[in-house]
Structures are given as structure tokens and as C-alpha cells.
């Protein structure tokens, strides 16, 4: 089940439940020390290079953000051989460069979630880790993602601050106004604890934010609908296969 030649793993968010380009797919459902991941880990090839895919909410989007077993998902990816994770996160845009259908690779985050299992140090008797998290996304791996987008000619905003909210409801206008004052550019429900756990596990981790809508009070829309979210994710997702091919080009066979 461990693939020594795995280039990286991709975690798909809302609206991204599979990678159609994946060839020679093997599926694994590993039971981790934290239980089962949200769904099968699909390991296959793109452009001859091996890559893993996991749908964060399950392939039928059955698991809401606050109920995701983030620990099992990341450990399952490690069990198939992943050392690097590219996390696709559907987000709302707060500041002007981050409008709907933009792809963004944030370099900071603020965690507003609560009540989630957010560390490997949860169980009594586990070693307490105080991992450095000043740069929550692995700078070198992030740099590779941004460079690959440039090579592929895929437009991407380099940098920005991801605010992770609890959900599953969307935010109030006042909550978004506060997040803007705090310095957030993007808002989503799944960026944490995933990024923090990845750091505890020693995984290189980068986020690809797919902007689906203007966050509450930021655009002209009277309300945010799932139809709008899914349509914009589909539009923005056309950049993902060329980005993945360019990113995989940087890895050996
Ligand atoms: N807020 C939080 N999460 C989201 C949003 C939003 O506006 N859009 C997509 N995911």
C-alpha cells in the first residue's frame, strides 16, 4: 500500500470529488490509528507520475467540515506514501484580489474554528508537541505550487491570509467585517485543523484556495447559494489539471 514513488497527495474540497485525469487507479481504505478517512484514497498516475487523491468530505460530500476526521485523512495519505499534501479548499473571497473563480495560494491563516480535534496530542499519554507554525504552509512546497502555476500559465494569486471558520453555516456580514479587519483575504471551513495537523505529522502542506463566492457583505449578491458556489468552483477548476501536470513535471519518475 505504501508507494515510495508518490510525488504528492491532493485533498479535494467542496465541488472537487475526483481527478478525472488520474490513470491506473488503485483504491485504498486504510484504517489508521485515528479510524478511517472520509473515503478511499485513490492512487494513480498523471503524466506518468504517481499521485494520491482523497475527497475531504467523502466522494458523496457526506461529511460536514466540523465532523471531518482530519487526523485519519492525513495519516491515511501518509500510509500510502505521501510526504507532501496539496489541499484544495473552496473558499469565499473577502478582499478585492480574491474574487469568485480566482485560484489563490495563501501564505498565512487565522484559526476561528472551535471544538474540533486539532492536534495529535489529544490522547492522554501522547507527547506534547509545540510545533513551529509561524509559516503555516510549507514555504518551499508553496513556492513549487506557485512556480508550477506560472509554468502552466494558470493565473494564481500568490499569498493571502486564510481565515478558517467553524461552519457549516456561512458567516454574518459582521463576522466577515471582523475577519477583514483581522487581515483575512479568504474564508473557508476546512483549512484548520488540517494545516496544523499536517505540521505535527511532518507533512509538507500547501493550500490551493478556489474562490467560489464573495464572502457575506463583500459583493453585490443578496445571498450566497450552493448553486453559485458549485458553478464557480467548476469554472475555476479548469486550471487544476494543467497545474497538477506542471507540478508533477518537477518530480522524478
Ligand atoms: N464562507 C466560508 N466557507 C466558504 C465560503 C464562505 O463564504 N464559500 C465557500 N466556502
UniProtKB/TrEMBL annotation:
| Full protein name | Probable S-methyl-5'-thioinosine phosphorylase
Other comments on record: Although this enzyme belongs to the family of MTA phosphorylases based on sequence homology, it has been shown that conserved amino acid substitutions in the substrate binding pocket convert the substrate specificity of this enzyme from 6-aminopurines to 6-oxopurines.
Which residues fall in a coiled-coil region?
none
| Complex formation | Homotrimer.
- General function of this protein: Catalyzes the reversible phosphorylation of S-methyl-5'-thioinosine (MTI) to hypoxanthine and 5-methylthioribose-1-phosphate. Involved in the breakdown of S-methyl-5'-thioadenosine (MTA), a major by-product of polyamine biosynthesis. Catabolism of (MTA) occurs via deamination to MTI and phosphorolysis to hypoxanthine.
Q: State the Gene Ontology BP annotations.
A: L-methionine salvage from methylthioadenosine; purine ribonucleoside salvage
User: GO: which molecular function terms?
Assistant: S-methyl-5-thioadenosine phosphorylase activity
Which family is this protein grouped under?
A: Belongs to the PNP/MTAP phosphorylase family. MTAP subfamily.
Detail which positions bind substrate.
189, 213-215
Instruction: Give any Gene Ontology cellular component.
Output: cytosol
Q: Which organism is it from?
A: Lysobacter dokdonensis DS-58
The pathway it acts in is: Purine metabolism; purine nucleoside salvage
Task: Return the InterPro entries for the record.
Answer: MTAP (IPR010044), Nucleoside_phosphorylase_d (IPR000845), Nucleoside_phosphorylase_sf (IPR035994), Purine_phosphorylase-2_CS (IPR018099)
Identify the enzyme class.
Answer: transferase
Q: Which PANTHER family match?
A: S-METHYL-5'-THIOADENOSINE PHOSPHORYLASE
Q: Name the positions where phosphate binds.
A: 14, 56-57, 190
Reaction(s) the record says it catalyses: S-methyl-5'-thioinosine + phosphate = 5-(methylsulfanyl)-alpha-D-ribose 1-phosphate + hypoxanthine
What keywords sit in the KW lines?
A: Glycosyltransferase, Purine salvage, Transferase
Q: Which CDD domains match?
A: MTAP_SsMTAPII_like_MTIP
Site (Important for substrate specificity) location in chain: 171, 226
As recorded in UniProt, its EC number(s) are 2.4.2.44
